[in-house]
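Exercise 7. Predict the joint structure of the components listed below.
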Amino acid sequence: MSKGSDLRRRAGQVMPAGVYGHVSTRLLPDAYPQFMSRAEGAYVWDVDGNRYLDFMCAYGPNLLGYREPSVEAAVAAQLAIGDVMTGPSGIMVELCETLVAMIGHADWAMLCKNGTDATTLAMTVSRAHTGKRKILVAEGSYHGAAPWCTPFPAGVLPEDRAHIIKYIWNDTPSLEAAVREAGDDLAGIIASPIKHDAFVDQMLPDPAYARRARQICDQTGAMLIVDDVRAGFRLARDCSWSLVDVKPDLSAWGKCFANGQPISALLGSDKCREGAASVFATGSFWFGAAAMAAALATLRIVRESDYLEHSIALGEQLRAGLGDAAARHGFAIRQTGPVQMPQILFEGDADFRIGFGWAERMVKRGFYLHPWHNMFLCAAMTPADIDATIAAADAAFGELRRDMADLRPHAALLEILG
Amino acid sequence: MSKGSDLRRRAGQVMPAGVYGHVSTRLLPDAYPQFMSRAEGAYVWDVDGNRYLDFMCAYGPNLLGYREPSVEAAVAAQLAIGDVMTGPSGIMVELCETLVAMIGHADWAMLCKNGTDATTLAMTVSRAHTGKRKILVAEGSYHGAAPWCTPFPAGVLPEDRAHIIKYIWNDTPSLEAAVREAGDDLAGIIASPIKHDAFVDQMLPDPAYARRARQICDQTGAMLIVDDVRAGFRLARDCSWSLVDVKPDLSAWGKCFANGQPISALLGSDKCREGAASVFATGSFWFGAAAMAAALATLRIVRESDYLEHSIALGEQLRAGLGDAAARHGFAIRQTGPVQMPQILFEGDADFRIGFGWAERMVKRGFYLHPWHNMFLCAAMTPADIDATIAAADAAFGELRRDMADLRPHAALLEILG
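Solution:
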């Protein structure tokens, strides 16, 4: 039995149903490795020693490459002094100053651990600031795994979402209808900066929609919240809606700004400083200095390197190469979203059997892609990595073409998709 | 200007109202340092170089002494391989197996980051498992900073607590009344293992109360949840209610089981495995391997060393010495709770001015005590440390006696206490 199979069997005994959450491979082709043994640069190794060029980047945290030397050095240096202590290190102030200096709309910062901490805090601060209750959330957007927002609501009560009103992302009439429904009780509007929902094409924001959301908040006093946990610093060195020239009142950050060390943040403007000051928010490890040191080192590279332009160039190379390779084998693929955060779906693939077939043939070749979740490029990838990916894709498309009649939909996925 | 004062001023600009959460010194005497520069063993140093024997232990995470060598080595070794990756390390399975082997009631584990993650997940799993809604929570108990439980409910809505019913901890008739109020809709009862509420004496559980809670859950199918985030592994090498021979269905853990590395856990029995499997719970950093490596190293020491007996012996030495010293100067102090998690309050001190006066005189002498929150001893403390604490306390009590007429209540604290 492989190490991976043995670990899966044991995990099934000591976790409720094996590995849970976003890293579970239950909704991926069977060939996907569940457990990893090592990560370095753009690569991960599974517990059986297979190496993969990793287009998931730990689902976001890996921005610069795993174990980026200056970030690792900052963590080691801080751990040698002190991490979680009876009071924060002075670098907490330095990190808040850095974030406020880098992010155009921000006058203050609160650091936390999970992305969900930051989005939930954004909701709470909005309610505390406005004294109102309704929060507008786009249908299908992921904002975390708390009762008010988790996408699979087992154990969640209607009351947990009593004052959540749904609207359609990027659809101004739908947003306006939700605002009317909120009446004079609108506390905030939360939006992903781009549409990066699972299972569907990604979408960039219509500037008119983003501006209208800003205008509504200005008119009503509600808070405009951008959930930049997934896309933050992947699209810009500022809040992602700086690309459409719209400043939110609050923005939630996480995943990659410490290149994998556990830290998230809520950033806000002076407008809601008092509301933020009134909310009690804390966690046992929120003031740990090692993750803050990693954030300072990561943000220095964000400011001083071409990591972003490099990632975009690689993404363009990948998108062009994959499009050509797919066409050569008669596949029509939809590559959506920013090139450095690609989503790749197949035309005519309602039950995802083609996408799963292709992803499986790629992972077996050592390229870890995802058949229904947006992917991420990291700055440690090289043009040669992308060339190798395109060559492997060409071979995988060819094999897939021959195997089309044998493809079957994935049982667990079918269940989720209804 | 001292470094500490300068950092406070800057923090007030880039955080909503300076340092927030449980590490804020806003509700402590002015002499308390807000920012720390270093931690080692039983000591912390503030940013101006002053050293303190630290009786807060980072509010719990420091169990064995800051920077315990074998834990630090495990973290460094794991960071050199990989931490947050596209999939968990195999040591996640090893850690879940370890927790299940050590904790009597547990058949499975889910690892997370914040203590609040674990307690909130316990609530959600209880509701998912039972299909019922009501959760019984003791008045004044701290279970985290989420909308359903935060002690300062700015930004929280009545709906967030619509199905929370309050009872009095350790009071069986009150518990039974709350159960009657829940009717046939009881999902769970959550209890701290000991009463360790802020501002009041601590209390050990009456075994009859704990047994009655177990019996009610057995009769109704509700989940019995022990919130061991703060006291776990401080009282026993098993769930803290093993001391009264009561097994919960779920227990929440955090703070100290990785000796300061960020990790928490929900442990559960087979009875609610299916409910747990149905709940979607995840976080960007929950599967990071460095904190898991730290947990494995910490739990090895928990099993193989006399850390617990050593902490209890130090606690007994401290309690006896402080009682004598206080009496010598005509003060009546109440030292409550387990000796290794002491709460120290003064008789006749309704507005806490005496306690604040004493704590201030201790912190100036280099002993970081807390005037209204339970404290923690760590295994790195020595009998000589405790002797030094008692000698300093004797001097501080003497000075306090002379200064009694000048003591004033603390303005921010008075506001909180109403």
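Discussion. The domain at 69-304 of chain A is CATH 3.40.640.10 (Aspartate Aminotransferase; domain 2).
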